[in-house]
Amino acid sequence: MVTRVISATGGPTGPDVEVVVVGAGFAGLYLLYRLRRLGFSTKVIESADDVGGTWYWNRYPGARCDVESIDYSYSFDPELEKEWQWSERYATQPEILRYLGHVADKHDLRRDIQFCTRVEAAHWDGDAALWRVRTDRGDEIRCRFYVMASGCLSLPKTPDIAGADRFKGESYYTGRWPHEPVDFSGKRVAVIGTGSSAIQAIPIIAQQAAELTVFQRTPNFSRPAKNGPVSAAKKAGFDANPRAYREAAKLSASGIPRELPLMRALQVSAAERLAKYEEAYQSGDLLAMSATFADIGANPEANETVCEFLRGKIRSIVRDPETAEALCPKNHFYGTKRPCLDTNYYETFNLPHVHLVDLRKDPIRTITEVGIDTASHSFEFDAIVFATGFDAMTGAIVAVDVKGREGVALAAKWADGPKTYLGLMTSGFPNFFTITGPGSPSVLSNMVVSIEQHVDWLSACLVYMRDEHLTTVEPTPVAEAGWVQHVNDFADITLFPRANSWYMGANVPGKARVFLPYIGGVDRYRKACDEAVRSGYLGFAFDGPGGARCNDGVIRRVQPDVAIVLELMQQFGVPALDTLSVAEARALTVAMAAQRPPGPQVGEVVDGRLPGAAGPLTYRVYRPAGAGPHPIVVYFHGGGWVLGGHDSDDPFCRDLCVRSGAIIVSVDYRHAPESRFPAAVDDGFAAVRWIAANAAALGGRPGQLAVCGWSAGGNIAAVVCQMARDAGGPRIVGQVLVTPVTDCDFTRESYVANGEGYGLTASLIRWFWDHYADPADRPHPKASPLRAADLSNLPPALVVTCEFDPLRDEGAAYAAALAEAGVEARHLACRGQMHTSLPSVDVILSAAAARAEIGTALRRFFGRSAPPAVES
Ligand SMILES: Cc1cc2nc3c(=O)[nH]c(=O)nc-3n(C[C@H](O)[C@H](O)[C@H](O)COP(=O)(O)OP(=O)(O)OC[C@H]3O[C@@H](n4cnc5c(N)ncnc54)[C@H](O)[C@@H]3O)c2cc1C
Fold this sequence. Notes:
Number of helices: 25
Radius of gyration: 31 Å
Structural class: alpha/beta
Bound molecules: flavin-adenine dinucleotide
Shape: globular
Strand content: 15-25%
Oligomer: single chain
């Protein structure tokens, strides 16, 4: 049991200082300022001989920020905002370094910074409840809290090139540039690498060098920065109300105020798309291109339109077609590697003394004493510039020997990828914080905004602990695992994991391939951090004289795209359907359906009519590409027996068709309240009989017929299987019930837990039932198939349920009851999904895996196993 209180320092076993901070860049400086003001004794340790971090080390020619300086600056000191005027839209490294020096002077920060000192180890002493921090000077500092503000891009990657240390000429590293001026005049210079730093440096080095040879492994997308003085409009926008501007930045997705697009690239004409891209291109704004359309980051086809636009620009600038082609990125989607801004980068390759070596065609064999040998050439150089990037996000953290409880090494814990809660802390390492750590927006945002948010959060946490007499804090394994899952879930609905980028750790040999930052946005992330605090520090365990306390739990359980859809529905004030008349509800669902992405292409779509139980019914046939005959799936749409029609689940039917390789016949049925129970199921059964009898005419393979339905359609599919069994046919080879209604009991746990807030509400389900069936009819197995006396001898089933669906438990109960009755039944429980997730093709991307499983299940029913190649 820990007994020491947080404020105690000194003494033989107490801490020397309350907080040790590693790093004196943007993060360390603000942390020192904030903690000092809050009365925490703080020591910053910095390996450089001055403040600045990134801007101390990266002094290469052309180094400058590519987030506009007005945005890329502190917000905590309104006075500073008035007294510091940026001379350019994108300030140079010397100007940013001067700015940070000015901040350090203004707030007298240097007196608590120990320069020229490297932290080598930090070990948690559980008995004393403090960290023992060891430096390369041999001293040990005991502190209660250990914070790594050590930078996401501060540990340059050692070039993994044979012979890198053999070169006898001048070698330079962009991330460790000398303080003395470097003069390339008259020299033969090589630049290895074509990332952000190289793209900034190459045009300037080319102005001096006699010969410049650029060695490129992966071309990157770059656009003109259009640098110059800060624009009057930008300045006026900021000056009008700096506080409001900063607030908007904090609540934005990237840390820079901006409206997010709702329109999808593939929804508009090619001309409209190009106009938007041209505008973004001309803006010189780093994030403008990704912000043109909503689907650029997630849809490969949409993204390719941007890639091709930018390739067109490269081809129009670079005169030599072979060089132009080599400079065109073709192996990654736009934005999945950090995009760049440049001044005359591509133009530089038109200069007669500038050459490009495409390492994919002519790889480096070795660096020699005099130059570089590739597979086909020997080059001689006077100087080599290594612009080979950083061991990003985790490199500087695990470079220190950090050991937590029981002597567990952080490097070992993170060997398969970093595990953090909110990117702030990691379990098993009490009182250890990372600023802009992995699992936070960090490098995907305007980092100053993200740094300030982390510092403010951490400071508030320390104040809370002091007030509450708590000594230690650490995240719980449950909270951490939940957050890691959420970070991955978010990345997985984007194109990012497909690129070999430093975001994925792919640039460092042996590094785990894991998406490192949090892609959900600064706004959403801040909300999660604040919510954790408001929920009694959800997921954090505290201990100390104030008592042990922990409100364990997971901060984000809903799939990220589900959350986005729910947010948008709220934002647009979509009314609850059960507050509308039936006619209004139908009109609204039709209008909303018109906005959906269309779903994949299928071979053919044909409408027809078939005889229902009491008159003709409309159906729509989706035929796969390729010669038939194909098996047939009779599909029943959702809509609570009240809404929808043969075409209302169009994207889902297309998706089912492509994934299953079967003909999908989406059948309409009579709706309530005009035609109440059992009209819908009687129509469903009549349709199945007719389709079975006419399978060959529909292009189907007789005898290979399955049923599938979503929601109320799942109810109809389940009932139809029971009716077919009882009637002795037709033979149904399998049933897929997607979040089906199987019972009229509204008291199950999932009704209580998910009755509100996840699209389909408990009250809407009641509204549907009221329209559909009298209370006396509802327990009938044709309305509540779960209540059938006999569930044996039914077709094999796949029952899909969603975690955040009121209908979840009755779906699960039906799957269990089928299995109990000896039916081959599988239950697919979709984590983090809501009732409408499965049919939301190309909207809820995280449900694509479940849709694929449905396709596989249908193929199995039909005795075929090879799944088709389907995107997403
Ligand atoms: C060339 C370049 C341009 C960039 N441009 C932008 C931009 O336009 N917009 C943007 O948002 N971000 C940009 N970034 C990212 C940039 O790193 C951050 O914006 C920000 O400067 C990070 O500040 P920091 O204090 O977190 O880390 P850093 O500035 O990296 O500071 C960390 C400090 O910790 C010290 N340190 C690390 N380990 C130890 C140790 N063991 N012992 C002692 N000291 C240690 C380092 O010496 C370093 O000084 C850029 C990065 C680079 C490299």
